[in-house]
Amino acid sequence: MSTEIRASTILPARRRPVTLTTADGLDLVGELALPPDGRTPAGTLVTLHPLPTHGGFMDSHVYRKAAWRLPALADLAVLRFNTRGTESPAGRSQGAFDNAVGERFDVQAAIEFAEFEDLPNRWLVGWSFGTDLALMHGADPSIEGLILLSPPLRYSAPEDLDRWAATGKPVLVLVPEFDDYLRPEEARERFARIPQAEVIGVDGAKHLWVGEKYVQRAHNEIVKRVNPRAYPLPTTWDGEYETFTE
């Protein structure tokens, strides 16, 4: 019997806690979620969370629900972790928030972990502060493409966009209609520095992507690029599942 996938639905996956070790000697708390039943991932999401000084962490809801759903629905591996000094129910990463400077080691540790685990088709996904980290520190040869949710372009600079432009790699920019920092029209102007960037305005959405329809939209846009064979995502599930409770 089909069950509607709700905000609290947790679908099957192979999930395990991981520790990322940075080049400057910090241990970062994380989780890797893989497709169930031993299936090989079709792609990998290396996620960078929103601003930790304003409540962002590896469990920020778009990423938490990605880890709950996308391994089963789209055969994607989802790597989430807390940047330095950030705490979540999974634990606290060592170090202290460093205004996107020291975090370059965190980004590189996550990319290197995905390489070491031999995870395929690796895409970097940033959300809010995470988009700045991705733009500033994520243009690694092992990364296939970049997906940005609600980019404020607060810490990153024009030369960071130029660096991504030079890679020629796909860049998807999802900009909420009612974003608090950068809205679609201005985003198109500023991301024009990256000729291959695709900027999509998301009607009705806000910076934090609150509301299931906006989460589903973000997930669908991600899957459409990383594993298009799984697009569009189903909204129901046949099989075992769990329900998250606070």
TrEMBL record:
SUPFAM superfamilies hit by this protein: alpha/beta-Hydrolases
Alphabetized Gene3D superfamilies for the sequence: alpha/beta hydrolase
InterPro entries named among the record's database cross-references: AB_hydrolase_fold
Protein name: Alpha/beta hydrolase
Protein source organism: Catenulispora yoronensis
